Amino acid sequence: MKNKQDYKVRLKIGDAEVEVEGAESGVVKIVEALSEVIRGTRRTVVPTVSVGTAPTTPPSTRTGPTDIRSFFAEKQPSSDIEAAATAAYYYQYLASEGDRRGGIDSASLQEAFRLAKRPLPAKTYFTLMNAKNAGYLDSVGEGGQFRLNPVGYNLVEHTLGPSQEKKKKLAKRRHKAARK
Fold first, then answer.
1. Burial of 113 (0-12, 13-18, 19+ CB in 10 A)
2. Is position 132 within any domain?
3. In this structure, is residue 34 part of a structural domain?
């Protein structure tokens, strides 16, 4: 028989769901403990929950696997940071099924640069950290793994490429004409 003072709380974060039922003080303690774990202030191992992750299905504009060199040529990243996001995008969405990865690390970034015939950065880990600091990648765990986030996805899918180069050239022309 349920006591009138019993409380019932259901927490849902991503795919995880926790239901707590009992006396008010016990429910409050459990919810507070769960909040600490989620915020990371408690030293408990908990699977990470990603809010706002990049889409998991390949973009519909692509028909099949593309080689990384032609993808880099199409997207024309102007910096190593943009190239890191481009490589992460390629490995997550466009690589053949056997080569697909959910994340990218220093070794896979170096391999991507080599295959794309792009000059290798001195320290690929720092390139990944700079891409993370620029907001294109998220750090995943402690093994030097990074994952493309929605900002990086939008950069590669919607911003990089020849259409943006045309817009930049047109803007330069307009700026020069306005100064005269």
1. buried
2. yes
3. yes
